[in-house]
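so the lab meeting is tmrw and i was supposed to have these ready like two days ago... anyway. pasting both below. for each one the top line is the aa sequence and the line under it is the structure tokens. i havent really looked at them closely yet so no promises
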Amino acid sequence: MKAILNRLELLSLAKAADSIAPNLAAMDALKGVLLEAADDGKVTVAATNLEVALERRMSAEILQPGQLVLNARLFADMLELLGGETVTISGEDGKRVEITSESAGYSIPALPAKSFPRMEIPFPEDTVPVTGIPAMARRTVFAVSENEAQPLMRCVNLIFTSEGLRAVGCDGSRLAAAKGDSKSEGSVSMLIPAASLGKLAHLIGNKDELYVGTTGKTVVFTKEDFVFSARLMEGNFIDADRMLASVKSGFTILTDAAALWEAVSSVTVVAGESNSFSLRFQEGRLTICCESENGSSSREMDVVPLAGTPSGEYWYNHRQLSDCLKALNGTLMLEVGQNGILLMRTDDLVCLQMSKRKPTVHVKAKSEKSTLPKAA
């Protein structure tokens, strides 16, 4: 293979590949980046960790078609250090590779290209268009479980319905259900690991149109000169519609999502290892309270009652609630249901947060040593 490429464009693709390729792997090829020069004047840059795979293409001057596999981290670092507008890559599969620019050059070994695992790509007629994947990822991945013993709850449920695209994340104590592209119709439900969906969201623009298809065990997102695949999980996921419908609203208020998030953030600066965080409702007022070994803090804000009579005090995990509020935007309809279940709704996102038991205050009695006069 021999090709002349734009250095900065290639560096961008190499960094994306390096973010996919693992630093530690049983197979050396998995730590590598595949460069494939074709007769059509394009060079493919690919990487995989067997969970996700990425392929990007760029225009280049192809002097000799071929394939090379190089260490991904080393390749990106060399392109960063090389000066000049263009870079020339020349070498044979499994042998030495010369990487040169206008003022400097490197000579490094190449790995056998045949050992690099390539992804399967579905036929174009088996794909559907979709937009807004990054926005949906931001509104759902925060709600997935961090427990490795719960692999299904570490996934986002991507659902294609007749009314459009939906995404659901749940960790057992909170749930986030986001609306997506209304033009993406179908009847497909797939479980995508949240980490994989987050990587995809990082690589594309929020308004980029992608084509989505499956190859059985993987989901593949494609657009011009871009292919990304992720391994799908198998199993039964929580029925979000049923769970949301089971909440019996006691009262409903109207507020602003950003204002409530800012208020919660300001109060919880005193949160510590053992803390008490609550929302206290009284007609048109909401009081946010937090107490811990670091101190106590509270803040009041006006709200608009919509249904029922707002009243009572309810306790929540302040970190989880803050994550939910941060994902919500605009006018917020907040409902309190049975056992303090909190429903937060905006136009494109619904969050459910389970309440906690009222914390028990333990008072430690100080032991005092009695001082008695010594006997004469």
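ok protien two:
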Amino acid sequence: MRRCENMRKQKKKKKNGRKIMLLILLIIIALGIFFGYSIHKNGGGLQGILATVLGQDIEKLENLDTINILVLRCE
């Protein structure tokens, strides 16, 4: 009797482990699709990656105020 119970528990553990691994895999795929879409939306390439990582999007980039910088050199 004990042997059958142990085998049932082992099968349940394997099924639960597979479900958890499948769930983790699906989450990773969903995040990859989300970031891929965000990168594409932000212009693609390196510019899109940087804009996505920094949390900027097209609307924020278009509405930025101009910044003037004065550089002086002393001799």
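from a quick look at the 2nd one: The chain has one domain: 2-62. The radius of gyration is 26 Å. will dig more after coffe
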